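Lab meeting, item 3. Inverse folding demo.
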């Protein structure tokens, strides 16, 4: 198992050397460019070849009659190159098109051998290779990372008894109860078919029209309108298998199980106004974060937790465990931690790995089985089906990222791009070719389904036990801290304000009335809407479900700045001792920093030390950082005070409730930015190097949310 981090840009393999390839002169040299940009002359380097292996002498000019004549069809190198280029794209995923993946491993910390015979859960300390792809759902492949959206959290575990894919999200419930509604849900959120916008967002009529007519979606809506849908990074979000699955023990006895991934660095999200600006400043914010963390050796890590329960619990639970719009509160069935997932290796090639990886919910090893959750049953058809469209061949399992890492033997053969075919004469079974006849069934080790007894008429009927749509939505809402409730209300008001049809806005609020009276009233007020009558409800809301701390992001924060990023805005002549102490304190907290300066060439500090910048102020707004510091000289602060980008740096950090450290000279900037009278306990003056450590400790709270009441009209109201 590889466990060494690969620095971004570092390739695992070096290009193959053509035997004896000694390149005499390069194109650059022939054109008189001196080989400065084409350093191939004279060395032992790989010769450029066609895909058929023929060495290429000239890759800059097509073959033509004379210097100015027509091109020749005979130019096989040109034709092959353009032919291949023309076919580079494959269809993007119909949902979850934008994603980012990394390799790692799962390590078992607690044996589950009593409840499952799954090989991966038998031996404590054993590592299983893993590949994880995070994604947004609605946006296309080139969309921005900080859309308000569910995040996909798909894990492929290459177990010794076959690949196991836990194709989950960062939210433990889903919009719909039956897979037959999935195309409608997705159509509604994707760009409208006539105008092809809006891209990567749910703030539009079609989505809310569908939602307002689909009461079962309202629990999920509470989650997607919460800050869970604008995570700070993949590294700071939870993952959930969503459905109830089954564990099967050695005697095929079954218990139910739900899967959870818990980030080691705690939960964190950004503010909505910040998300909107991040999308402009760095549309790749999340993928860059993952790439940088792995590259710097700060490997992202999650615990695997399981909620295990039996039929008796399922019978006694207030909701149906087969209903994917419901979760089981951790307070009712505790999450037991049984292992850890570590991502320690970036991909070598995005297309080969992240784009071609094919997750399928039906990929389960012996010892794990499905429940009758109707969404899961439908998914088990859809994922296999979609891979054929996307990857173009039933042989997609031959692609290295999808191939199991355990032995495989079967009689499947041929098809497009077949890399493996049965060897020998027998490609069928049973056969009488003895040892040469190929693989045989293994009733003892092989996959066996749980022998559930099923009865009943063939019907299209939603079970009565799925009919409560609001009780858990309410439980989620009342489990949020006041600031999280405010963000949820703000999100609903924002989204519905983008709907053109007042009747859609009103219909949504009519459902909110079943969730929480003040929630509905505040949203109606935010929309300037008379409070509508409550929607017709199939079941009255259960109002005494207890709040659960596990549902709040704020209550599950890290309490430390580890893994976070400080942006330090510096100028020429800034206090060198303070700057150095700040950088040391960042390191001590296991955080990282970036220097933002008026020029990318960096600055010269008070003691003459030169410091390189990672960002020029215009390209490094404070939305890219978890906290900021402004360390300026007197002249430098005057310079910043006259710069709009520097003023935005300060005002945005303040408006997004970030901790701000500053040298006294920076007041000149704050004055011009209109902040001087508002500075609060989250704005910490750094009077000398000794204050750096305390500032970084304060940053561990991540945000001073109390400030929001002073910077937001809606909060003040
Ligand atoms: Fe799905 C992709 C998660 C319901 C059909 N889904 C996809 C991915 C994730 C999820 C994380 C991206 C995998 C990757 O990174 O390649 N989907 C979920 C969750 C659901 C869910 C947690 C509900 C609990 N999905 C769902 C339903 C259907 C699909 C009900 C269809 C009936 N999902 C697909 C798909 C995708 C997909 C069309 C698109 C690309 C792919 O599968 O490989 O088959």
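The presenter then showed the designed sequence:
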């Amino acid at each position: 198992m590889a466990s060494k981090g690969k620095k971004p840009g570092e390739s695992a393999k070096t290009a193959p050397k053509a035997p004896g390839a000694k390149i005499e002169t390069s194109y650059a040299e022939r054109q008189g460019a001196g080989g400065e940009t084409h350093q191939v002359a004279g060395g032992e380097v790989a010769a450029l070849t066609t895909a058929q292996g023929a060495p290429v002498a000239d890759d800059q000019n097509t073959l033509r009659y004379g210097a100015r004549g027509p091109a020749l069809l005979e130019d096989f190198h040109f034709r092959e190159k353009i032919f291949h280029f023309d076919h580079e794209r494959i269809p993007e995923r119909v949902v979850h098109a934008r994603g980012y993946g990394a390799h790692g491993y799962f390590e078992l910390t607690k044996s589950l051998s009593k409840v499952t015979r799954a090989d991966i859960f038998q031996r404590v300390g054993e590592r299983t290779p893993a590949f994880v792809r995070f994604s947004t759902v609605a946006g296309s492949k080139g969309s921005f990372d900080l859309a308000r959206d569910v995040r996909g959290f798909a894990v492929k575990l290459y177990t010794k008894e076959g690949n196991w894919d836990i194709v989950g999200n960062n939210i433990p419930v889903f919009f719909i109860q039956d897979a037959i509604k999935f195309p409608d849900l997705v159509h509604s959120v994707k760009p409208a078919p006539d105008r092809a916008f809006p891209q990567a967002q749910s703030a539009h009529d079609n989505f809310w029209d569908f939602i307002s007519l689909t009461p079962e979606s309202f629990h999920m809506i509470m989650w997607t309108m919460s800050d869970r849908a604008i995570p700070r990074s993949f590294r700071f979000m939870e993952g959930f298998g969503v459905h109830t699955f089954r564990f099967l023990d050695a005697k095929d006895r079954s218990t139910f199980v739900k899967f959870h991934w818990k980030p080691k660095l705690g939960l964190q999200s950004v503010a909505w106004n910040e998300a909107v600006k991040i999308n402009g400043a760095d549309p790749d914010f999340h993928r860059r974060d993952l790439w940088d963390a792995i590259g710097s050796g700060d490997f992202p890590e999650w615990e695997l937790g399981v909620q295990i329960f039996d039929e008796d619990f399922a019978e006694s639970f207030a909701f149906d465990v087969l209903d994917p719009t419901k979760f089981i509160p951790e307070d009712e069935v505790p999450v037991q931690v049984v292992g850890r997932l570590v991502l320690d290796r970036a991909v070598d090639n995005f297309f080969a790995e992240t784009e071609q990886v094919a997750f399928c919910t039906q990929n389960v090893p012996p010892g794990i089985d499905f429940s009758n959750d109707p969404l899961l049953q439908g998914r088990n058809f859809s994922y296999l089906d979609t891979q054929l469209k996307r990857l173009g061949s039933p042989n997609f399992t031959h692609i290295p990222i999808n191939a199991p890492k355990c032995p495989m033997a079967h009689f499947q053969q041929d098809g497009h791009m077949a890399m493996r075919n049965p060897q020998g004469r027998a490609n069928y079974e049973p056969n009488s070719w003895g040892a040469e006849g190929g693989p045989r069934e293994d009733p003892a080790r092989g996959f066996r389904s749980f022998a559930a007894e099923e009865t009943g008429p063939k019907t299209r009927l939603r079970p009565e036990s799925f009919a409560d749509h609001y009780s858990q939505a309410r439980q989620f809402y009342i489990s949020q801290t006041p600031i999280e409730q405010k963000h949820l209300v703000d999100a609903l008001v924002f989204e519905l304000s983008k709907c053109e049809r007042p009747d859609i806005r009103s219909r949504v609020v009519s459902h909110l009335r079943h969730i929480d009276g003040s929630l509905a009233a505040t949203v109606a007020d935010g929309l300037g809407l008379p409070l509508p009558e409550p929607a017709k409800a199939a079941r009255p809301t259960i109002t005494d479900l207890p709040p659960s701390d596990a549902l709040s992001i704020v209550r599950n924060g890290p309490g430390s700045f580890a893994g976070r990023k400080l942006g330090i805005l510096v100028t020429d002549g800034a206090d060198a001792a303070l700057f150095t102490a700040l950088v040391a304190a960042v390191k001590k907290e296991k955080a990282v920093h970036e220097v933002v300066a008026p020029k990318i060439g960096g600055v010269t500090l008070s003691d003459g030390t030169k410091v390189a910048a990672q960002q020029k102020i215009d390209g490094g707004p404070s939305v890219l950082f978890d906290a900021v510091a402004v360390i300026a000289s007197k002249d430098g602060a005057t310079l910043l005070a006259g710069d709009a980008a520097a003023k935005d740096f300060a005002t945005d950090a303040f408006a997004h409730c970030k901790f701000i450290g500053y040298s006294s000279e920076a007041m000149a900037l704050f004055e011009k930015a209109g902040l001087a009278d508002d500075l609060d306990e989250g704005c910490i003056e750094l009077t000398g190097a000794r204050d750096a450590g305390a500032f970084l400790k304060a940053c561990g709270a991540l945000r001073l949310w109390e400030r929001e009441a002073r910077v937001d009209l809606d909060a003040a109201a």
